[in-house]
Every structure is written in structure tokens, then in C-alpha cells.
Write a structure and sequence with these properties.
The protein is of the alpha+beta class and about 425 residues long. The protein has helices spanning about 45-55, 55-60, 105-115, 160-195, 200-230, 235-240, 240-265, 270-295, 300-370, 385-420; strands at about 25-35, 40-45, 70-75, 80-85, 85-90, 95-100, 150, 155. The protein is built from 10 helices and 8 strands. A hairpin with a 3-residue loop joins strand 5 (about 85-90) and strand 6 (about 95-100). Helix 3 packs antiparallel against helix 4 (about 160-195), helix 4 runs antiparallel to helix 5 (about 200-230) and helix 4 packs parallel to helix 9. Belongs to the CorA metal ion transporter (MIT) (TC 1.A.35.5) family.
Length: about 425
Amino acid sequence: MERRHLPKVQPAPVPAPLRRKGAAPAIRKWLVVPAVGEEHKGEFGKHQIMEMTGLPARDLRVLDPVLSYPSTILGRDRAIVVRLEHVKAIITASEVLVPDHEGVLLTSFLVDLRARLSLPDAERSTNPANDRGDGMEQGNQGDGPRLALCRVGSTKIVPFEFKALEVCLEHACKYLESETRSLEKEAYPALDKLGRKVSTLNLDDVKNLKGRLVNLSGKVQKVRDELEHLLDDDMDMSEMYLTRKLSFQRLSQSLSRADSNKYASVDHDDDDGYNREDEYHDDEAESGHESSTYVKPDIDELEMLLEAYFVQIDGTLNTLYHIREYADDTEDYINIMLDEKQNQLLQMGVMLMAATVVVTAGIVVVSLFGMNIHIDLMKVPETPEMARIKNLKFWETTLGTVVGCVGIYLIAIFAGRKSKILQ
């Protein structure tokens, strides 16, 4: 009996895990613009960005190109996350990370960012928010080293993160303002044209413009609400002082090392003096903690910066509001015109109906004479004189019927106008 050799069954290949359609890639291209040095490009994963910036994965979702997040500014411990329309960036105390930097809309933003960050630290910013008085230097002198703002001669040093944030705000506000001006140039002529002539083409143009108006108003309103939210919350603004927090951390580390060295050199046998010193430092720390609890954060510089762009974006929103008001007024005017036309059509219908009723009365008269009745008008004339008289009576009856119908119609129209049913 022959032994049959069965073919070896090859194991089925394990399919590679399919990536969800439309999902963002795990590694993205980033442009890193440092405060000191030259910029460089690189591909970083999500976990690498989290290690570099200290941001949680939840905050990185704000910059996801697949997800449609609204405009957001988040202040965290080591970084600021900015998403203002197409402007996306992660700002730290020493560098700016821009994702998807190869987009066409980001070209001018990157040019402005490079130009602004390349300026020397002691140079005064060109934005009006930095020229609104000397209130930014106010604050307690005992708050420790303040790198947020200090004077060098007669100039001011602006923190690196505020320079980058100012570029983001400026570019987003300029972009929304240019879109608003473009819409304004198209909206007013289109609305005036529709007011002069209501047609399908004009209605389609105004419909498209109104859709753009609603979309743009939503974007501007979200940016305005985000700035207003930051201005209302002092703690959120205080979290955005990355340079100052970094300087305080370094100061605390140096003080802790100095204290450790100091306590190491103290004679360990002097327990009483050591305990008294501990009590003194504990009381001092407790009193310092109690006093710092009620001190308002020094946020004057950032507050004035945000207020300047809040006023600018609020002006853009007011322009869009005026365009919407003009569109609503045009729509009301068109509705009034259409109502007037409809009233005219109704009046014409009433007049035609009255004419129909009057003509029907004349038809009734004609039908009566068309019946087989024995009257002199229906008899065949025997002589030419009788034929002439019969013809005369025919025209008298016809003219009488027509004049009677017209008179009844005029009386009906006069009664309608007198009762103000017809105009």
C-alpha cells in the first residue's frame, strides 16, 4: 500500500496592523527654533515631544491635524501650547516647536517668527502692547529674581516665550483681519446688487457670502473668547511665565544646595542651637507661605500684551457684526419688497375675480336671449322697416348689457377702495 505524501500547509501570514483611516502619523515633522543658535528640522514622535516639553498626551491632541480643535492657548508647567487657526506651536522657555511647518499658510508666520526672535533681547517690541507705559515694571521687589521683565538702561527685556506668543497672536489676528476685509469688499456690493434686483444669481452669491460670514465669525469669536478667558484668570496667565518659573526653580535649587552645605558644616553636638535654628526657619517659611498666599501674581506684561490683541480681534468681530447687520437689513428690505409684490398680485386677483363675476352676469343675459321664447325681437321681420327696428333693438340690448356690466365692475372697485380692501 502506497503512502501518500500530503503537502505541507504553510501558516497563513499574519496581516500587519492596519492604521485607522485618516489617523495622524506617529512621527511628524517639526521645526525647532531655539532662542540661541540655529534652527533645525527633525521628525519626532509623540513621546519624544512629551519628554522635551513636559506636556501630557491630552495637550498634544490640540495640535493634531486630523482633529478639528478650536483656537486654544494652554499654559503649562514647562510649555505653552498655541493653536490659533493654522498657527500651531509649542513654546518653551528656550525654543519654539512648529509642527507641519511646510504648509503654505505658515510661510509668512515662520518669516515673522525668525525675524522677531533674531532681534536682540534689549530691543523694544514694535507692538503697541509694549509701549503702553511703565506699569509692567510694577511689583514687589522682594519677589526674587524676575526675568519676566527687567531694564537694561532705558530698554526692556521681553521673555522669549512672550516674543513667540506675540508672533502667534499677531499672525492669527492679521490673518483673520485680512479675511474680514476681503469679505467686506465682496459683501457690500453683492448686497447692494441684490437690493436693486432680486435674481437667482444674486441670491446664490449672497448665500455663499453669508456662509463665509458665519464661518469667519465663529473663528474670530473663538479667538476672542480664548483671550478673554485668559485675561479673566490671573493664575492661567501666571502659568505662562516660563522664564520666571525656570529662574525660580534654579534659585530654589541653589538655595537648597547652600542650605545643605551650611547645615553640614554646623557642629552636630550643638543640639539646642540647631533646634532653635530649625524653629526659626520653620516659622519663617510658614510666615512666607502665608504672606505669599495673598499676593497677586505679577502678570502686568502678559496682561497688556493680551489686551492689545483682544482689542484688535474685538474690532475685527465688530466689523463682521456690522456686515451681518447690513445683510439682515438687506434681507428685511427684500422681504418687504416681496410682500408688496405679493399684495399687488392679490389685488390683481381680486380685480380679475370681480371682472369675471361681471362678465358672468352679461353671459346670463345673453343666455336668456338665446332661449326659445316668443318676443318681438325674435320674430323674423316682414318688412325692411321692421328689420331696421329689430336691428336697433339688438344693439340697444347689447350695449345696455355691456354698459351695465362695466358699471357693476366700477361700482365694485369703488366699494373696495372705499373700504381700503384695494389700494
